[in-house]
Design brief:
Blueprint: H1 2-9, H2 11-25, H3 28-35, H4 39-52, H5 56-62, H6 66-90, H7 96-106, H8 114-121, H9 126-152, H10 162-187, H11 191-223, H12 225-253, H13 260-266, H14 273-282, H15 289-322
Length: 323
Amino acid sequence: MKLISFIKSNSFILMITAVLIFSIFLPQAGLLVGKAGITTYLTFIAMFASGLGLSLTNIKDGFKDFKSILFSFSSIYVIFPLITYVILLILNIRSGDIFIGGMILAAQSSTLASAVVLTATANGNVPLALIITIINNMASAVLTPLILKLTLSADQAISIDVGPMILKLLLVLVLPVVLAQVVRKFIKKHMEKITPYRKAVSKIVVLVIVLTGAASASSEIKANIGQALLIILGVAVLHGIMLAIAYLYIRIAKIKHESKSAVLFTASQKTLPASLLIWQNYFAAYMLAPILLVLHHMVQLIIDSVIVSRLSKSNRGKDDEQE
Protein backbone atom coordinates (compact mmCIF):
# COMPACT_ATOMS: atom_id res chain seq x y z
CA MET A 1 0.00 0.00 0.00
CA LYS A 2 2.83 2.40 0.85
CA LEU A 3 4.47 1.69 -2.49
CA ILE A 4 1.23 2.35 -4.39
CA SER A 5 0.66 5.56 -2.43
CA PHE A 6 4.23 6.67 -3.17
CA ILE A 7 3.79 5.98 -6.90
CA LYS A 8 0.51 7.91 -7.03
CA SER A 9 1.82 10.94 -5.15
CA ASN A 10 5.04 11.03 -7.19
CA SER A 11 3.74 9.81 -10.56
CA PHE A 12 4.81 12.92 -12.49
CA ILE A 13 8.39 12.97 -11.20
CA LEU A 14 8.66 9.21 -11.75
CA MET A 15 7.50 9.64 -15.36
CA ILE A 16 10.02 12.44 -15.91
CA THR A 17 12.80 10.29 -14.42
CA ALA A 18 11.83 7.38 -16.65
CA VAL A 19 11.77 9.59 -19.75
CA LEU A 20 15.14 11.10 -18.81
CA ILE A 21 16.81 7.70 -18.39
CA PHE A 22 15.19 6.38 -21.59
CA SER A 23 16.32 9.44 -23.58
CA ILE A 24 19.90 9.26 -22.36
CA PHE A 25 20.41 5.58 -23.19
CA LEU A 26 18.05 5.36 -26.18
CA PRO A 27 18.09 8.89 -27.65
CA GLN A 28 16.83 7.98 -31.13
CA ALA A 29 13.17 8.82 -30.44
CA GLY A 30 14.02 12.13 -28.76
CA LEU A 31 16.42 13.10 -31.55
CA LEU A 32 13.76 12.33 -34.15
CA VAL A 33 11.23 14.53 -32.35
CA GLY A 34 13.88 17.23 -31.90
CA LYS A 35 14.72 17.25 -35.61
CA ALA A 36 11.03 17.84 -36.35
CA GLY A 37 11.52 21.24 -34.69
CA ILE A 38 8.44 21.07 -32.49
CA THR A 39 9.93 22.68 -29.35
CA THR A 40 8.50 26.07 -30.34
CA TYR A 41 5.03 24.62 -30.90
CA LEU A 42 5.14 22.69 -27.62
CA THR A 43 6.05 25.84 -25.72
CA PHE A 44 3.15 27.64 -27.43
CA ILE A 45 0.78 24.82 -26.42
CA ALA A 46 2.00 24.85 -22.80
CA MET A 47 1.43 28.61 -22.54
CA PHE A 48 -2.01 28.30 -24.16
CA ALA A 49 -3.00 25.56 -21.69
CA SER A 50 -1.81 27.70 -18.76
CA GLY A 51 -3.66 30.72 -20.14
CA LEU A 52 -6.94 28.79 -20.30
CA GLY A 53 -6.75 28.26 -16.56
CA LEU A 54 -6.50 31.98 -15.85
CA SER A 55 -9.88 33.67 -15.25
CA LEU A 56 -10.71 37.26 -14.37
CA THR A 57 -11.50 36.14 -10.82
CA ASN A 58 -8.10 34.42 -10.60
CA ILE A 59 -6.42 37.62 -11.70
CA LYS A 60 -8.24 39.77 -9.15
CA ASP A 61 -7.56 37.35 -6.28
CA GLY A 62 -3.97 36.77 -7.28
CA PHE A 63 -3.08 40.44 -7.54
CA LYS A 64 -4.12 40.92 -3.92
CA ASP A 65 -0.80 39.32 -3.04
CA PHE A 66 1.18 41.76 -5.16
CA LYS A 67 4.16 41.50 -2.80
CA SER A 68 4.65 37.82 -3.66
CA ILE A 69 4.25 38.53 -7.37
CA LEU A 70 6.91 41.25 -7.16
CA PHE A 71 9.22 39.05 -5.08
CA SER A 72 8.96 36.11 -7.48
CA PHE A 73 9.58 38.43 -10.42
CA SER A 74 12.67 39.89 -8.73
CA SER A 75 13.90 36.47 -7.66
CA ILE A 76 13.65 35.06 -11.19
CA TYR A 77 15.03 38.00 -13.15
CA VAL A 78 17.44 39.69 -10.71
CA ILE A 79 18.50 37.44 -7.84
CA PHE A 80 18.83 34.19 -9.81
CA PRO A 81 20.94 35.68 -12.66
CA LEU A 82 23.18 37.51 -10.18
CA ILE A 83 23.78 34.44 -8.02
CA THR A 84 24.41 32.24 -11.06
CA TYR A 85 26.84 34.74 -12.56
CA VAL A 86 28.74 35.11 -9.28
CA ILE A 87 28.96 31.33 -8.76
CA LEU A 88 30.34 30.86 -12.29
CA LEU A 89 32.91 33.61 -11.71
CA ILE A 90 33.95 32.07 -8.38
CA LEU A 91 34.44 28.73 -10.17
CA ASN A 92 36.45 30.59 -12.84
CA ILE A 93 33.95 29.59 -15.54
CA ARG A 94 33.78 32.70 -17.70
CA SER A 95 33.17 31.24 -21.14
CA GLY A 96 32.41 27.99 -22.91
CA ASP A 97 29.49 25.57 -22.85
CA ILE A 98 28.83 25.50 -19.09
CA PHE A 99 28.93 29.30 -18.85
CA ILE A 100 26.53 29.60 -21.79
CA GLY A 101 24.22 26.95 -20.32
CA GLY A 102 24.29 28.62 -16.91
CA MET A 103 23.37 32.04 -18.25
CA ILE A 104 20.66 30.67 -20.56
CA LEU A 105 19.19 29.00 -17.47
CA ALA A 106 19.53 32.14 -15.32
CA ALA A 107 17.84 34.34 -17.93
CA GLN A 108 14.69 32.21 -18.15
CA SER A 109 11.30 32.68 -16.60
CA SER A 110 9.83 30.50 -13.86
CA THR A 111 8.76 27.07 -15.07
CA LEU A 112 5.77 26.82 -17.41
CA ALA A 113 3.97 23.85 -15.89
CA SER A 114 5.70 22.14 -12.98
CA ALA A 115 5.43 25.03 -10.47
CA VAL A 116 1.66 25.10 -10.96
CA VAL A 117 1.40 21.30 -10.93
CA LEU A 118 3.49 21.02 -7.75
CA THR A 119 1.51 23.80 -6.06
CA ALA A 120 -1.72 21.95 -6.85
CA THR A 121 -0.23 18.70 -5.55
CA ALA A 122 0.72 20.48 -2.32
CA ASN A 123 -2.90 21.74 -1.98
CA GLY A 124 -1.56 25.27 -2.26
CA ASN A 125 -2.70 28.53 -3.87
CA VAL A 126 -2.91 27.48 -7.53
CA PRO A 127 -4.34 30.79 -8.86
CA LEU A 128 -1.40 32.69 -7.37
CA ALA A 129 1.10 30.23 -8.87
CA LEU A 130 -0.62 30.47 -12.24
CA ILE A 131 -0.68 34.28 -12.26
CA ILE A 132 3.00 34.54 -11.30
CA THR A 133 3.87 31.97 -13.98
CA ILE A 134 1.95 33.83 -16.69
CA ILE A 135 3.38 37.26 -15.73
CA ASN A 136 6.95 35.99 -15.53
CA ASN A 137 6.74 34.10 -18.82
CA MET A 138 5.21 37.03 -20.67
CA ALA A 139 7.96 39.30 -19.31
CA SER A 140 10.51 36.74 -20.47
CA ALA A 141 9.90 37.75 -24.07
CA VAL A 142 11.76 41.00 -23.37
CA LEU A 143 13.87 40.31 -20.28
CA THR A 144 15.48 37.01 -21.31
CA PRO A 145 17.18 38.45 -24.43
CA LEU A 146 18.29 41.54 -22.48
CA ILE A 147 19.81 39.46 -19.65
CA LEU A 148 21.63 37.27 -22.19
CA LYS A 149 22.88 40.35 -24.03
CA LEU A 150 24.13 41.86 -20.77
CA THR A 151 25.85 38.74 -19.41
CA LEU A 152 27.26 37.29 -22.64
CA SER A 153 28.31 40.48 -24.44
CA ALA A 154 31.84 40.22 -23.00
CA ASP A 155 32.40 37.04 -25.03
CA GLN A 156 33.51 38.25 -28.46
CA ALA A 157 32.54 34.91 -30.04
CA ILE A 158 28.87 35.50 -29.21
CA SER A 159 26.69 37.92 -31.09
CA ILE A 160 23.11 38.41 -29.88
CA ASP A 161 20.52 40.29 -31.91
CA VAL A 162 17.84 40.87 -29.27
CA GLY A 163 15.22 42.20 -31.72
CA PRO A 164 14.38 38.89 -33.48
CA MET A 165 14.68 37.01 -30.18
CA ILE A 166 12.16 39.30 -28.48
CA LEU A 167 9.76 39.02 -31.43
CA LYS A 168 9.94 35.22 -31.43
CA LEU A 169 9.41 34.99 -27.67
CA LEU A 170 6.45 37.38 -27.88
CA LEU A 171 4.83 35.08 -30.43
CA VAL A 172 5.58 31.94 -28.41
CA LEU A 173 4.98 33.16 -24.85
CA VAL A 174 2.56 36.10 -25.01
CA LEU A 175 0.35 35.42 -28.03
CA PRO A 176 -0.92 32.01 -26.77
CA VAL A 177 -2.03 33.55 -23.44
CA VAL A 178 -3.98 36.25 -25.27
CA LEU A 179 -5.57 33.66 -27.57
CA ALA A 180 -6.40 31.46 -24.57
CA GLN A 181 -8.32 34.32 -22.94
CA VAL A 182 -10.34 34.82 -26.14
CA VAL A 183 -11.09 31.09 -26.45
CA ARG A 184 -11.97 30.89 -22.75
CA LYS A 185 -14.91 33.27 -23.28
CA PHE A 186 -16.50 30.79 -25.68
CA ILE A 187 -15.88 27.65 -23.61
CA LYS A 188 -16.33 29.14 -20.12
CA LYS A 189 -19.26 26.81 -19.31
CA HIS A 190 -17.16 23.77 -20.17
CA MET A 191 -13.96 24.70 -18.28
CA GLU A 192 -14.53 22.15 -15.50
CA LYS A 193 -14.70 19.36 -18.06
CA ILE A 194 -11.69 20.71 -19.95
CA THR A 195 -9.44 21.32 -16.92
CA PRO A 196 -8.27 17.67 -16.48
CA TYR A 197 -7.32 17.54 -20.17
CA ARG A 198 -5.63 20.94 -19.96
CA LYS A 199 -3.48 19.78 -17.06
CA ALA A 200 -2.70 16.52 -18.87
CA VAL A 201 -1.58 18.46 -21.95
CA SER A 202 0.81 20.56 -19.84
CA LYS A 203 2.34 17.43 -18.33
CA ILE A 204 2.69 15.76 -21.74
CA VAL A 205 4.41 18.87 -23.12
CA VAL A 206 6.92 18.80 -20.25
CA LEU A 207 7.59 15.07 -20.81
CA VAL A 208 8.14 15.53 -24.56
CA ILE A 209 10.48 18.45 -23.94
CA VAL A 210 12.47 16.41 -21.41
CA LEU A 211 12.60 13.64 -24.04
CA THR A 212 14.07 15.94 -26.70
CA GLY A 213 16.34 17.84 -24.31
CA ALA A 214 17.86 14.74 -22.72
CA ALA A 215 18.27 13.09 -26.13
CA SER A 216 20.12 16.11 -27.52
CA ALA A 217 22.51 15.98 -24.56
CA SER A 218 22.74 12.17 -24.44
CA SER A 219 26.09 11.67 -26.11
CA GLU A 220 27.68 14.52 -24.17
CA ILE A 221 26.34 13.22 -20.84
CA LYS A 222 27.63 9.69 -21.49
CA ALA A 223 30.99 11.05 -22.63
CA ASN A 224 31.28 13.40 -19.66
CA ILE A 225 29.84 11.46 -16.71
CA GLY A 226 32.19 13.11 -14.22
CA GLN A 227 31.28 16.58 -15.45
CA ALA A 228 27.58 15.69 -15.40
CA LEU A 229 27.86 14.66 -11.74
CA LEU A 230 29.56 17.96 -10.92
CA ILE A 231 26.80 19.81 -12.75
CA ILE A 232 24.19 17.93 -10.69
CA LEU A 233 25.94 19.02 -7.51
CA GLY A 234 26.22 22.60 -8.74
CA VAL A 235 22.60 22.99 -9.81
CA ALA A 236 21.42 21.33 -6.58
CA VAL A 237 23.33 23.96 -4.59
CA LEU A 238 21.96 26.74 -6.82
CA HIS A 239 18.37 25.54 -6.44
CA GLY A 240 18.87 25.13 -2.69
CA ILE A 241 20.04 28.75 -2.43
CA MET A 242 16.99 30.00 -4.33
CA LEU A 243 14.64 27.95 -2.15
CA ALA A 244 16.33 29.31 0.98
CA ILE A 245 15.87 32.90 -0.25
CA ALA A 246 12.20 32.23 -1.06
CA TYR A 247 11.66 30.62 2.34
CA LEU A 248 13.29 33.61 4.05
CA TYR A 249 10.89 35.92 2.21
CA ILE A 250 7.92 33.77 3.27
CA ARG A 251 8.96 34.05 6.91
CA ILE A 252 9.67 37.80 6.80
CA ALA A 253 6.55 38.69 4.79
CA LYS A 254 4.39 36.29 6.84
CA ILE A 255 2.90 34.71 3.73
CA LYS A 256 -0.34 32.78 4.23
CA HIS A 257 0.13 29.04 4.69
CA GLU A 258 -1.72 28.06 1.50
CA SER A 259 0.45 30.43 -0.59
CA LYS A 260 3.82 29.12 0.59
CA SER A 261 4.14 26.46 -2.11
CA ALA A 262 3.21 28.91 -4.88
CA VAL A 263 5.91 31.37 -3.78
CA LEU A 264 8.55 28.67 -3.17
CA PHE A 265 8.23 27.08 -6.59
CA THR A 266 7.58 30.11 -8.81
CA ALA A 267 10.46 32.05 -7.23
CA SER A 268 13.03 29.25 -7.56
CA GLN A 269 12.20 27.05 -10.57
CA LYS A 270 13.34 27.78 -14.11
CA THR A 271 11.57 26.65 -17.25
CA LEU A 272 13.06 23.96 -19.49
CA PRO A 273 11.03 24.47 -22.71
CA ALA A 274 12.01 28.10 -23.25
CA SER A 275 15.64 27.47 -22.27
CA LEU A 276 15.96 24.66 -24.82
CA LEU A 277 14.21 26.86 -27.37
CA ILE A 278 16.85 29.58 -26.83
CA TRP A 279 19.69 27.03 -26.95
CA GLN A 280 18.47 25.33 -30.15
CA ASN A 281 17.89 28.58 -32.00
CA TYR A 282 20.90 30.63 -30.90
CA PHE A 283 23.53 28.52 -29.10
CA ALA A 284 23.32 25.02 -30.64
CA ALA A 285 27.08 24.99 -31.20
CA TYR A 286 27.59 24.72 -27.42
CA MET A 287 26.80 21.01 -27.09
CA LEU A 288 27.34 20.71 -23.32
CA ALA A 289 24.88 23.51 -22.52
CA PRO A 290 21.70 21.36 -22.68
CA ILE A 291 23.21 18.97 -20.12
CA LEU A 292 23.08 21.75 -17.55
CA LEU A 293 19.57 22.79 -18.60
CA VAL A 294 18.12 19.26 -18.46
CA LEU A 295 19.91 18.24 -15.25
CA HIS A 296 18.84 21.44 -13.48
CA HIS A 297 15.23 20.75 -14.44
CA MET A 298 15.47 17.20 -13.08
CA VAL A 299 17.20 18.25 -9.85
CA GLN A 300 14.69 21.00 -9.10
CA LEU A 301 11.78 18.61 -9.65
CA ILE A 302 13.29 15.92 -7.43
CA ILE A 303 14.05 18.37 -4.59
CA ASP A 304 10.67 20.09 -4.87
CA SER A 305 8.73 16.81 -4.98
CA VAL A 306 10.12 16.08 -1.51
CA ILE A 307 9.00 19.52 -0.33
CA VAL A 308 5.55 18.93 -1.86
CA SER A 309 4.97 15.77 0.18
CA ARG A 310 5.56 17.74 3.40
CA LEU A 311 3.55 20.79 2.34
CA SER A 312 0.56 18.73 1.17
CA LYS A 313 0.26 17.04 4.57
CA SER A 314 0.61 20.40 6.31
CA ASN A 315 -1.99 22.07 4.08
CA ARG A 316 -4.44 19.20 4.56
CA GLY A 317 -4.01 19.60 8.31
CA LYS A 318 -4.83 23.31 8.04
CA ASP A 319 -7.93 22.54 5.98
CA ASP A 320 -9.11 20.01 8.56
CA GLU A 321 -8.67 22.59 11.34
CA GLN A 322 -10.77 25.13 9.43
CA GLU A 323 -13.54 22.60 8.88
